């Protein structure tokens, strides 16, 4: 569990476009949301899961200091800092580790940078983001050697596109997907305040860039190219 951040601190009403995303100024922000919130009693409910081998929320362990909440209007002080290491599981309970120089399957073993994309199944802008990423991949326009991993977060059994394990398949997601826990510890560890939320890590697990909101394929490519240019 993260210290200093409770579920109510993450304002998930900020499911906005890349130029229209709200943010959490501090843990006392009481913004009113029309979307499912992190302390919604229905969030993360496993009701309706016929296959017990499939989980919609998984166990999350965070090692290291959480990143500051992201503010798009300010200089991102998280850039250059070591991202916390998140250990979790996929929907089918396959272990996944994100961040750090020893991340299995990512930075250390491949020597590549990693794009981490936090997505909520009910968020319309997350539904817009996935096809744009896929279009970049199909066109061969993703940076060479970039690893990609998704994190399904803010699960709400009463919202659209539940369960997320089926949603990502229907959307054609082709990379690994970690299942955040009910407390949203994965996205909070990386300072996410909206959906979709993207973080680029270098091969040592340091933050190169963070971005809130959805974008076109061209905008995502520009973000990645700039992040990796340094």
List the main descriptive attributes of the protein structure presented here.
about 230 residues, alpha/beta, three-stranded antiparallel β-sheet, five-stranded mixed β-sheet, Glutaredoxin, globular
Report on this model:
It is globular, with a radius of gyration of 16 Å. It is 20% helix and 17% strand. The strands form two sheets. The chain has a five-stranded mixed β-sheet with strand order 6-5-4-7-8, with helices on one face. The protein has helices spanning 107-110, 124-138, 164-171, 185-189, 217-229, and strands at 61-63, 85-89, 95-98, 114-119, 147-152, 176-179, 197-201, 207-212. It is built from five helices and eight strands.
Strand and helix map with partners:
Elements: E1 61-63, E2 85-89, E3 95-98, H1 107-110, E4 114-119, H2 124-138, E5 147-152, H3 164-171, E6 176-179, H4 185-189, E7 197-201, E8 207-212, H5 217-229
Parallel strand pairs: 4-5, 5-6
Antiparallel strand pairs: 1-2, 2-3, 4-7, 7-8
Helix pairs in contact: 2-5
């Amino acid at each position: 569990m993260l210290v200093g951040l409770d579920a109510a601190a993450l304002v998930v009403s900020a499911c906005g476009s890349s130029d229209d995303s709200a943010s959490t100024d501090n843990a006392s922000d009481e913004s009113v949301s029309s979307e499912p919130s992190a302390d919604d009693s229905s969030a993360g409910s496993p009701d309706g899961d016929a296959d017990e081998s499939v989980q919609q929320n998984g166990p999350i362990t965070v090692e290291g200091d959480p990143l500051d909440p992201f503010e798009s209007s300010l200089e991102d002080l998280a850039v250059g800092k070591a991202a916390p290491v998140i250990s979790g599981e996929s929907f089918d309970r396959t272990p996944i580790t994100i961040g750090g120089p020893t991340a299995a399957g990512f930075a250390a073993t491949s020597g590549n940078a990693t794009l981490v994309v936090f997505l909520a199944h009910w968020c319309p802008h997350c539904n817009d983001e996935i096809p744009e990423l896929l279009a970049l991949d199909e066109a061969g326009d993703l940076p060479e050697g970039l690893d990609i991993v998704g994190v399904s977060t803010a699960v709400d059994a009463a919202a659209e596109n539940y369960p997320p394990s089926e949603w990502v398949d229907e959307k054609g997601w082709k990379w690994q997907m970690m299942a955040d826990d009910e407390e949203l510890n994965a996205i909070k560890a990386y300072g996410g305040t909206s959906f979709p939320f993207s973080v680029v890590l270098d091969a040592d697990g340091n933050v190169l860039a963070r971005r809130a909101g959805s974008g076109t394929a061209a905008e995502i490519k520009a973000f990645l190219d700039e992040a990796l240019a340094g």
